[in-house]
Amino acid sequence: MPQSDPAFPAELETGYRRFRDIRYAAERERYRQLGEGTQSPSAMIIACSDSRSGPETVFDARPGELFVVRNVAALVPVYAPDTGSHAASAALEFAVLALGVRSIVVMGHGRCGGIMAALDEVPPLSSTDFIGTWVAGVRELAADLDPPDADDPARRLHALEHRSIEHSITNLRTFPWIATRELSGALSLHGAWFDIAFGELDVLTPAGWSRLPGP
User: Residue 8 needs a FRET pair 20 to 30 A away by CA distance; which of 72, 83, 180, 207 works?
Assistant: First the structure.
């Protein structure tokens, strides 16, 4: 136990006061309704934990519109029901079976630290407890990249960020209650990639990756 309770982070307290003065004040009634009722978001976003790529900001979402799960590199594991603890899978189960979301979007982003870790572009992870194991599947994807993506570091990282999103969508389809709903048309699966520096968004289409038009 700490000898004394540290002060609450000043930047968070300041941010909360801005929220109360501006956003909450403007949407007070919506927050009241959300707090007294239940949530009914139409979309689930699986995003990276990176502090620069918050999906609520990227999609300019109002409170209650998105069900968001964030983890290192926005990864989706395969369906593996057992006695272990599966945070991402539990969130998927709740979003699909309890909330009935109509779309799931896997959203990666540029210069992702988790993808860099899989490429050994950050210090070795041999001493970490969790990250190395978490991104091991991405490392396997990197081995299958085709030239010239495999030969140029920047292109390699960008290609692997896209490939990881595609792989996570493949993993989504291993969940039986996701596959069934996608087949019936009740649920759609999507991929997106956010360019932090330029605010641009790539989306995965049947023909491949395409950049959404901006202003």
Answer: 72
Question: Phi then psi for 183, rounded to 5 degrees?
Answer: -65, -35
The 3-state DSSP composition of the chain as helix, strand, coil percent (nearest 5) reads 45, 15, 40
Burial string for 176-193 (b: 16+ CB within 10 Å, else e) reads eebeebbeeeebebbbbb
The H or E element that residue 132 is part of is: helix 131-134
For the segment 165-191, the average pLDDT, to the nearest whole number, is 98
Spatial separation of the C-alpha atoms in residues 114 and 161, rounded to whole Å = 9
Please, what's the largest Cα pairwise distance for the chain?
59
- In 69-125, which ranges are continuous DSSP H helix? 87-93, 113-118
Condensed to tens digits (0 to 9), the pLDDT of residues 49-97 reads 999 999 999 999 999 999 999 999 999 999 999 888 899 999 999 999 9
